[in-house]
Amino acid sequence: MPNRRFLFLLGSSRSEGNSELLARRAAEQLPAEVEQEWISLTEHPLPEFADLRHDTDHVRPTGGDAGLLLDATLAATDLVIVSPLYWYSVSAPTKRYLDHWSGWLRTPDIGFRDTMAGRTLWGVTALAHEEFEVADPLYGTLHHTAAYMRMRFGGVLLGNGSKPGDVLADTAALAQAKTFFAREAPVARFPYETGEPA
Ligand SMILES: Cc1cc2nc3c(=O)[nH]c(=O)nc-3n(C[C@H](O)[C@H](O)[C@H](O)COP(=O)(O)O)c2cc1C
């Protein structure tokens, strides 16, 4: 994995929760030369997203949490959305971060779309439900986001747990964590582009 830089975006509303624990297990397997940056979206809260797309250009954020997150995003070859399953989808801080992408796509001179194309999006999530199919909406959100951005998609690592630490008893999830980032991550395509289900 030469010249790879992983950005882990922590979207839980609590620290050191199950999603983060599972992501840290997966990240332990990354080669030492791979750079890692971890940013908590609750410790660095983005402002409420204002949709200016059809009024005026968005202005590049300088400084503040928006500037920090934009710069970290542009610098990453691999973006890992570490979000618990909240109401079957990503958490609100995670969703707000993705909403800001819509502004960054309209921000002159940063080349957000071209920069992101070909980079890789990954997901790590914890959920209380034992039947992981209930996380399909989260999977679809991340997969389709990658398809829209012409990014690669590495899939979602899922672990079971309710209270912090529970995921450490999910031995299947911990086993999958060991090889998760070694997976193939093909360029994502919408189902209508391939004729196959996502
Ligand atoms: C606001 C909220 C919504 C949740 N929604 C779901 C859900 O839709 N399905 C589910 O299985 N668990 C749900 N849970 C449980 C969490 O996914 C579970 O506790 C998970 O381990 C939290 O991950 P964390 O420790 O990384 O924060 C919800 C928890 C909260 C606080």
Automatic annotation (TrEMBL):
Gene3D superfamilies: 3.40.50.360. Signal peptide: none annotated. It comes from Streptomyces phaeofaciens. Keywords: Flavoprotein, FMN. Residues 6-103 form the NADPH-dependent FMN reductase-like domain. One of its GO terms (molecular function) is oxidoreductase activity. InterPro entries: Flavoprotein-like_sf (IPR029039), FMN_Rdtase-like_dom (IPR005025), ISF_SsuE-like (IPR051796). This is Flavodoxin.
